[in-house]
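note to self — DONT lose this again. spent like an hour looking for the file last time. sequence + predicted structure for the chain T wanted, 567 res
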Amino acid sequence: MSESKLWLKHYPEEIPATLDYSLEPVQKYLEITAKNYPEKIALHFMGKEMTFKQLYEDALSFAGYLQGTLGIKKGDRVAILLPNSPQNVIAFFGILLAGGVVVETNPLYTERELEHQMKDSGAIAIITLDILYPRVSKVMPQTDLTHIIVTCIKDFLPFPKNLVYPYIQKKQYGIVVKVKHEGHTHLLTEILKWKQKKLIQRDYNLEEDICLLQYTGGTTGLPKGVMLTHRNIIANTTANGAWLYKCKPGEEVVLGILPFFHVYGLTTVMILSIMIAAKLVLMPKFDALDTLKTIEKQRPTLFPGAPTIFIGLLNHPDLKKYDLSSINACISGSAALPQEVQEKFESITGGKLVEGYGLSEASPVTHSNFLWGERVKGSIGVPYPDTNAKVVSPETGEEMPLKEIGEIIIKGPQVMKGYWNRPEATKEVLKDGWLYTGDLGYMDENGYFYVVDRKKDMIIAGGYNIYPREIEEVLYEHPDVVEAVAAGIPDPYRGETVKAYIVLKDGSAVTADEMNKFARKYLAAYKVPRQYEFRSELPKTAVGKILRRMLVEEELQKLENESKKHA
């Protein structure tokens, strides 16, 4: 059934079923746009702007320093540990221009999480903020890192913000880090003075050469590096552009809230903006009031986001004071988009907000509803151009009849090469070119897809993927913990939130507050459980496996009982 691609009959005539893709590596996008739109504004960051010509020149300087001074060779991994900022964009394209592989890394990571990602990726250099320098320095001896490139937020702020910011930073973080350009430490401000522009040119096999190591996780084990090739990223960015067929090159303004350390933000925000010569308005973090002010002032036309972002804006008490009418198109991902949120946001902005679907292993987008065509309530939409999808039985692997639930599998040019240094894990999810998503869903008679359940154990809270095993490993390190399990329970704002169920040693009097303080030492803030429940025992299978799903079902039953009480 899927071979006939039922969904193609619903494609607007502006979207072709098959696309033409660039034969050049990802970094070529910046070179071409800088040539065609040299004086157009590429980046806006807290009041300061940069043209495409300036951005390209800075990326070349960065690349020249990586090659000439740090000795970065083709295929060497270089990590980025930064919030959304001009430095992040410069570093991303600079690393690729030097022939390196980008390892985008979450700046919220603790030392433990950072150490794992650096060791696993084998990154030999990293660019980070001054306030994160102490954290990276502590991790460095246990990894292959030999160079730390340091930048400051103030370096790309306009006057007088650049003078005031250090005082704000000291008040907010309580530290001032002063770093010198010497030894294994390098200052970005010095690097960008580097005028060696003659780079060693690399030859690329777009199908095989890795552009990005995108770390994701699973319910068993630590996060894995998803190998995304230049072809993967080019294919997905091109498809995103085709989906947004009403957008005009050189005329759009993109709101950059989605973090670039997540491939959704990297592809649909950063790289797409460069490809279509859009002005990218960078926001280091989501704050509802700041976002409302920014939308009114900067007039973005494209707004990729996650449900929690749209919910946060709609629930802000000052929402009606701000003009959001510039927004033409929003694609929501990372979690299910409530219908009422979609309808309310569209009525306020006058633009279109649709739900899409994807995963890190697919660069990430595979499905979306049409922005300016037919939309189906509750659906994740239809597959992208050149993408095939079907629903198969988790037991037999045979294709399921229409409207029957099974595992969604995907084949297309955006599907990853595999997991970094994990051939066995790769074999589990890539079979005959098909990516087995682990997500359960079905396809209707028109080729529209629906997700009924996420991967059985993954928690999606506020758009972040959280893997219970990581949390549990930390909880088990507490000397008073006998058993622990983490689960995602419903949350009206975050979609899901993390709850930990713990069995303590006899006689222990550990409190939830004490467990919370312990967890915060080792986990990024968004992974820390919001609730703790202490039990004498946990439900288990006959072979002793803790039944996480049973605990979630108990929570759902509690919610149902509560709603009946108030009905």
